[in-house]
Design goal:
Layout lengths: L2 H36 L2 H22 L2 H7 L5 H33 L4 H8 L1 H7 L2 H10 L2 H24 L4 H22 L10 H6 L1 H18 L1 H9 L2 H35 L4 H28 L1 H8 L8 H11 L2 H13 L3 H22 L4 H27 L3 H26 L6 H22 L3 H24 L1
Helix pairs in contact: 1-8, 1-13, 1-14, 1-22, 2-4, 2-5, 2-6, 2-11, 2-12, 2-13, 3-7, 3-11, 4-5, 4-6, 6-9, 8-9, 11-18, 13-14, 13-16, 13-17, 14-16, 14-17, 14-20, 14-22, 15-21, 16-19, 17-19, 18-19, 20-21
């Protein structure tokens, strides 16, 4: 692959995937807004209480072999079929385990309704196990178009069901059915849109060949899921369901742009880096390009979201969710570094260094436990402050090995990202200052702040001709021209 070909492919994948992902996340966000307006914080809190158990069981069901398939250079039908049947067996076991511990989950939180809620949500694990291979095969081929179609169909259909049930008065069960139906629709559409089918083959040798990488990824995934959701566990146990509901809603709003970008990063960079794992020079070049694009997009989104958090929550979710505003403001600063942490970890995985990945995960999770133990007596806001410090420490640890393996240390990464941080900070100051002026209502304030933020940031990037912005602008413009030409030709 030529240098220009790699550069064009990376930018095209990131820009096209971002535009497509925004559509999917936009649908999910609108559905989340409708559900938040129809339901109450304590009902979201109940789902947050049990989510850590579902996430851990889902990680067990994934088994780590999906990522091993992506990382492996040559994959046979025997490999995929073997792992397909293995995932189903593990998914069935994990679902049964969740159903078994459901009464203990309810007793832990002193919420009897969680027994039936947990057992109903466990269906997600088994249903998802039928689609793990299909999803990872699309991931390996970097087929974003099909993945987007699947996600869009799943989000719309499950969202309609959830909102309809909430409107009809089913309460927390509307959230459960939305999640379960979403898993069903996702699996169904992956089978329809992906032509891969398993053969009647199962060979233990295939599992053994990928066991080293897969087992370490399973252990890393388990650790990550436990500690990614540990705040739900701790807040649900030590505070009220309403408090957890406010936290989960703030986190959901903050994660809308972050997950859109992080999901795109994972889909693009891991298979791309895997293909370049034997060429350090090109791998570093691809890493620099991807990191610059990440900072270009994620930094203004997080800073801008923090600046408009108050009018945004009051306009979209109404006054009953006002208590989540300070949580959202703090979580945005945590979200600043999340995609950068992810891209550094993806580099380790692409190079097959799952032992380093596992070591890093263990070290970082020890820090999270210490952070929670110190901050929880002062309340949820202080716990989020500990999470921000954790993200900074994590970035240092993750980028340390990037510096050693491909010669791209943290100081060089920060130097590449600094111009975008500065432009975003200036934009954030302008947006926040605008919010201090008197407005007739929160709608007009929100609209004015959003328009001002976009205009200021784009103008600054164009004025200083920041490299990643220019490249993304040209890539998007070229795609629009091609789409227009295709429309004219078809017409």
């Amino acid at each position: 692959m030529k240098r220009t070909g790699l550069k064009a492919k990376t930018i095209r994948a990131l820009s096209w995937g971002m535009l497509e992902s925004l559509g999917v996340q936009g649908v999910r966000f609108c559905i989340g807004v409708l559900l938040a307006r129809l339901l109450f914080p304590e009902q979201f809190g109940l789902i947050g209480m049990l989510w850590v158990f579902i996430a851990v069981a889902q990680s067990i069901s994934d088994s780590g072999y999906g990522l091993a398939l992506i990382q492996k250079r040559e994959v046979t039908l025997t490999d995929t079929s073997t792992i397909f049947y293995f995932n189903i067996a593990v998914g069935l076991f994990a679902m049964g385990a969740v159903c078994l511990v459901a009464p203990w989950v309810a007793a832990f939180y002193n919420q009897p309704i969680l027994t039936s809620l947990t057992r109903a949500m466990s269906l997600i694990i088994f249903v998802n196990s039928f689609a793990i291979i299909h999803s990872n095969m699309l991931h390996k081929k970097m087929d974003f178009k099909t993945q987007t179609k699947v996600s869009m169909c799943e989000s719309i259909l499950s969202g309609v069901i959830g909102v309809s049930m909430a409107f009809a008065g089913f309460g927390v069960w509307s959230l459960v059915v939305q999640q379960v139906s979403g898993s069903f629709f996702r699996t169904l559409f992956l089978w329809i849109m992906n032509s891969w089918r398993p053969a009647l083959i199962f060979k233990v040798q295939s599992l053994k060949e990928m066991f080293g990488f897969g087992s370490r990824m399973l252990a890393s995934g388990l650790i990550d899921q436990i500690f990614s959701n540990i705040y739900f566990l701790v807040i649900g146990k030590l505070f009220s369901p309403s408090d957890l509901g406010y936290f989960t809603r703030a986190k959901a709003v903050q994660e809308l742009p972050t997950n859109t970008l992080s999901g795109l990063v994972a889909r693009v960079t891991f298979p791309l880096f895997s293909k370049l794992q034997d060429d350090t020079i090109r791998l570093k070049r691809a890493m620099k390009k991807a990191l610059s694009l990440l900072v270009l997009i994620n930094t203004p989104m997080m800073i801008g979201l923090a600046a408009i958090s108050r009018p945004l929550i009051l306009v979209l979710l109404t006054e009953k969710w006002a208590e989540c505003i300070p949580y959202l403001e703090l979580l945005c600063f945590y979200g600043l570094l999340h995609p950068l942490n992810l891209i550094n970890l993806n580099l380790l995985l692409a190079l097959g260094r799952s032992e380093l990945y596992l070591r890093l995960e263990i070290a970082k999770k020890v820090f999270i436990v210490i952070s929670i133990a110190i901050t929880w007596p002062w309340g949820i806001s202080w716990m989020i402050c500990g999470l921000i410090i954790f993200s900074i420490v994590s970035y240092y640890l993750n980028s340390y090995y990037t510096g050693r393996l491909i010669g791209y240390p943290i100081r060089e990464q920060l130097r590449d990202g600094l111009p975008y941080f500065v432009m975003s900070a200036l934009m954030g100051i302008a947006v926040y200052a605008l919010g201090l002026l008197p407005f007739p209502n929160y709608w007009s304030m929100l609209l004015s702040q959003v328009v001002t933020g976009v205009v200021v940031y784009v103008s600054l990037c164009r004025l200083f001709r920041l490299e990643a912005f220019v490249e993304l602008w040209q890539a998007c413009w070229s795609r629009l021209v091609l789409l227009k030409a295709g429309t004219v030709q078809n017409g």
